[in-house]
Give the backbone structure.
Amino acid sequence: MDGLTYTPGKRRPHAVVIGSGFGGLAAAVRLGARGWRVTVLERLDQPGGRARVFRQDGFTFDAGPTIVTAPFLFEELWDMCGRRLADDVDLRPVSPFYRVRFDDGAWFNYTGNPEALRAEVQKLSPGDVDGYERFMRASRDICRVGFEQLGDVPFTTWRDMARTVPDLLRLGCWRSVYGLVAKHVTDERLRTLLSFHPLLIGGNPFSASAVYALIAHLERHWGVHYAMGGTGALVRGLVGLIEGQGNSLRCHADVREILVRDGAACGVLLADGARIDADIVISNADSAATYRRLLPAGHRKSWTDRRLGRARYSMSLFVWYFGTSRRYEDVAHHTLVLGPRYKELVRDVFARKVLAEDMSLYLHRPTATDKAMAPDGRDAFYVLSPVPHLDSGTDWTTEAERYRARVARRLSETVLPGLQESLSTSRVLTPLHFRDELASERGAAFGLEPILSQSAWFRPHNRSEDVERLYLVGAGTHPGAGLPGVLSSARILDRVVPDVSVFA
Ligand SMILES: Cc1cc2nc3c(=O)[nH]c(=O)nc-3n(C[C@H](O)[C@H](O)[C@H](O)COP(=O)(O)OP(=O)(O)OC[C@H]3O[C@@H](n4cnc5c(N)ncnc54)[C@H](O)[C@@H]3O)c2cc1C
């Protein structure tokens, strides 16, 4: 961090941030702390992006992220503003991290406590205990390199990449996450449990590099947390920091074009025709959409339409938010309801791009920790199912209700008996929402797919390769999706955005 380096009285250089996802909000706080005048422009009616909040019939639903890991990345942002995260947001550890229901009816409590987790593994597959311990050690070693050492390396040059290769090879990161897990344990249920993490950031466990196995250790080391009031409390907290720095966030501000003069970004044009000048532009919009839709082709040598057309995009999600007229006391905060297939289901989602008949679901019950998310005596839920992005050709305008009914049936047969009779509110999100509301290429929920050939130096850089004074943060740039990823992308700005004094 460079600290506040601008001299009062001098012109305050202006940074425009397109989009108010966690990456954009964190970028704004960091730039504000370094003396930039910052304007955040958001096309929707509220900040947060995927983490926006729906309120309906007395229920509060976080639209997206619910699992908060590596809270120090948030604490850093508050520290920069001379405040404490705890003064604004009440973060509570969640245990178990996940309760997992296998299709054969067996349950598994995935906790952060090494002894308790060992006992669960022993119960599920006694012969795999040693292998499980070896996997957790491998995850720790990968996390130390992949997250702690490389998490905020910009990867803007070949040299950044070359320096990491020996470590990544030594740690076996040429394998897939599933490949690494399968090397250590034999029980297919345990293999599923230890390898599903890439799905949380849009990756295919069978093709995402084993570097993503770091998430298992990340969760164990820093815990899984919940923000009381919902993840929206973190969004509101960050907006408060930005305003406290004297900067601003505008909703209903749809950026149509990034303006370029002499090869450098110099402002943005809004859909209503207004032009906003800037010394630097930071895009938190989907990286493919940033290049394809916001930057005219004549300015793009690196991220051409052809290259973006051939790129691989992450899966999408079907999300159903619902409230019930009763409480399901024995349902944990985070539950995974796994289906009969793993590898084949993942192949349907990522490779075949077909909407499968079976499903594996993540069920969120914030009211397990925070009753205020629903009216008295009720539960708020959301359930998400990984589905292919829009290349599947699925017509979600007709499919959404049919699919919702199938998800409801699966839940009532497994963890929420009597669900149909106790439904009191309902809304769905389909890949169309990711495309049309969040402006994401192909309706992908997590931007470019995290595969080796689209990671680090191969991912759109945080400092644009095409236009000077243009920077990228968020899921579609390095290091990638998920809250730790997008907060780290903003951290990288401190290394690649010049000091304000250069522009003053
Ligand atoms: C349902 C769901 C559940 C998830 N669960 C978790 C979880 O539990 N834990 C976790 O760590 N991660 C989770 N993730 C992933 C995580 O939410 C995302 O990776 C992260 O929030 C993305 O942040 P971002 O900075 O990329 O911005 P986004 O959230 O993608 O926001 C980008 C913003 O830019 C705006 N924008 C786009 N184009 C323009 C334009 N032209 N003009 C103005 N504004 C524009 C959009 O409206 C949007 O608000 C989840 C994601 C989803 C969808």
In short: The mean pLDDT is 95. Residues 156 and 461 are 6 Å apart (CA to CA).
